Amino acid sequence: MHTYPTQAVILAGGQGSRLRPYTDDRPKPMVEIPGTGTPIIGHQLSWLAAEGVTDAVVSCGHLAEVLQEWLEEAVLPLRVTTVVETEPLGRGGGLRYAAERLPDADQPWYATNGDIWTRFSLREMAAFHAERDATATLALARPRIPWGAVETDAFGHITDFIESPPSPYLINAGVYVFSPAFTKLLPDRGDHERTTFPRLARERRLAGYPLPNGAYWRAIDTAKDLTEAARELGSRGV
Question: What does UniProt give as the signal peptide span (predicted)?
Answer without folding.
Answer: none
